[in-house]
Amino acid sequence: MPAICIEARHAQKVLDETLNKTDANDADGLAQLAEAGFYKAVRVKSFDAMLTRTLVGARNQLLSISTQLSNQIRGLMKTFGLIVPNGTGRVFDGNVRELLDGNDGLARIILPLLEAWRDIRKRAADLGRQLVAAARESQATKLLMTIPGIGAVTAVSYVAAIEDPGNFRTSRSVGAWLGLTTRRYQSGEVDYDGHISRRGDNHLRGLLYEAATVILTRTSARNESSLKSWGLKLRERLGFKRAAVAVARKLAVIMHSMLKTGEVFNTLAGATA
Fold this sequence. Notes:
The protein is mainly alpha-helical. The chain has 11 helices and 2 strands, in the order ααααααααββααα. Strands 1-2 form a two-stranded antiparallel sheet. The longest helix is centred in the middle third of the chain and has 34 residues, at 104-137.
């Protein structure tokens, strides 16, 4: 039997109208939605896309655990007056071991955490190499990486989420799909725009925001573009965060247009998306 996935938020609004929340009432409500056709179908991602998203998610989880462990080590050592200097990777490892020198009692507690931290970072690096290899094998990913500020993780995540550019009728709709457009409330004489909707893929939206931050703050003079100039003007008028969100939305639109046309990033046409 063919299966159709429906949008959970839309179905929830309808099911919440029932007086009593029971499994039987929910099943009856879903059956009525299917019978009337009053539902929004959700695109089911392919196996390869889900595999890529799993790789990205597993790497992010390991990086998050690594950060938590390093913060835990810093906090435990601070209790004994040992302040670990700023640093990551081997610098952090060396600083911790230097401070523990001569303190055998505390070392027996901290060193197992430090070894776990090193092992997790090693596993995260292994997944990172798999991610970079996947990015090099995909023409779509290499195309998106011509944009300054777009790295392998962002490009792979975007391609896995979009899959086929034909899934979207227009490139502008991608910004709304990712929750980067403002919400609107209108009732009678009341009509105002609120914050962005934050719908869709939270992780990809965060990656695009990071890429926008890089474009506005860290790109060199040789990577100047109309998109960056437009974003800097917005920053002067609206502030950095709003400007970064606007640039992230335009990035989502531009990247979809690039996948659809197969053209590399045009530094002069970035702000016209």
